[in-house]
């Protein structure tokens, strides 16, 4: 009887415990409790390669990134945003190894060496490109100042290129160092942040174990966040039955939603649903969403209890529960007004991102989203009222970042980058460069100024007293017809630049240099040349002599005539060859090659006799249609260009003749006004160099 009573006393509590366990396992818990057991886990990952002397290189997870290596991890990190499941009161959470890109924890020495060789080739090209761009920007800086439109923007970009060039040089030295040392493995490093579904606290976490496609993590605080719940992992796993997926329904990053959802089968393709919890009808965890498939409960239980045996796991959870029991709950995070959706737009393009719903209407794109267009073009950015306002357009050969119109065309301010080719920053209209902007290309002049319909019109200069102005004169400045006038050299001041010029202040500029016509062809001589030359020298004005080239005489004949009739002293400016043929005259003379050959004869003959390299004076039409065909020997000469429009010539030039309608005190009639292409200091350096 006593034994019978004892058996009953043992069996009844045992049965009660079993019944309680069954109730615990099979009685459904609340839906909100299940959602509170989830969290969003964000990881930034990269490979680390230690070098000698304490240096370090960082590699991206994949080898398909634009920058294959860096001195700073931020340049190569891979950011991943997934769902994770709390499974203990000590802050353990479970997700898949998609969080670290499913890459190995170490990069083998052979793979590291291959990446270093690829990086070495990449950096050689990158440094060459940046050097060429920097030279173009330096040339612009030498010829411009803060009064020029767009100067500050170009200088900011110049500083950026210089900074990147220094970084590339330093990085290349480290890569060379890595190639010289014995092969080493690179190891994976990840920074993990956790945001619980229950509230907006951001917690840091670390890895406990990685196995079988899963990652077991633990919060650094080793406690379950206040307000959060957790799933229990049963040693013998949990039945599946009818189950649902609890996860975040978005694309991660800017589209991240505040609360997880119970997803439909079609929603499992959302990237953030990776790592989501498969929950059975009793509210127990029976699987994990991984790689588009379900990781079953047996694999989960095996992973967890290989880390801690069941008694240890239970004891540690009980202790953590007691410690957290007295904590006050944290206010719940408010729900967002946005939802995330993948859908076809009215123009049959695929959109994925944030939307808002209005009664009786299709969803409107609002917030961050990505649009896929034909040809591989991708748009992503901020949408308002179903229109992309600001964002990025990614194409195979170029990228654009800035403002858009309703037709996905760049409109407003934006930056277009064509890797290794061009950088443009400025105004756009209906998909074309329009307004003010600047373009920088390796080895070419910076084009900073006005654009229209995608084409560069030119740079509108602001004329100030800080610029260097000069004049060129001939017999026409001494009278017209029978009326003759002398030049009053003591009173020379430029008083007008002609109409349509952007002038800052009053025009009252000194004449800083003067060129005087001496000869033309093989017989013509300016009768006032000797007098004007003598007066310019007497009044201390830097002076030079020019010859007007004729297509009816040879270059040798004209050079002999010029040298016989002209005076070029060591302290004078270089002689100038004035070349102004029409297209018809060039054709009649035999074409560009014939003209260039005779011009080179004149230039070389005069240079040899005078000891100064002459300057070539041409018009804008000649620059556009003929000068590009000139031989390399001719293109090395400095150029003086006549262009009378509102824009500065787009070519490497020494002087620019901006108007034939200028006015100079001391000279009767109109005078050609010229501008030196540089600063006052550069003009002084130029005078020093040509007077040697």
Task: Walk me through the structure.
Belongs to the glycosyl hydrolase 25 family. Keywords: Glycosidase, Hydrolase. It comes from gut metagenome. The chain is α+β, with helices and mostly antiparallel strands and 692 residues long. The protein folds into three domains: 178 residues, Thrombin, subunit H; 120 residues, Single Sheet (Histone H3 K4-specific methyltransferase SET7/9 N-terminal domain); 229 residues, Alpha-Beta Barrel (TIM Barrel). Helices cover 27% and strands 32% of the residues. The protein contains 13 helices and 38 strands. An eleven-stranded antiparallel β-sheet has the order 14-15-16-17-18-19-20-21-22-23-24. A hairpin with a 5-residue loop joins strand 11 and strand 12. Helix 8 packs parallel to helix 10. It is elongated. The N and C termini lie far apart (129 Å). The relative contact order is 0.08. The model has no long low-confidence stretch (mean pLDDT 89).
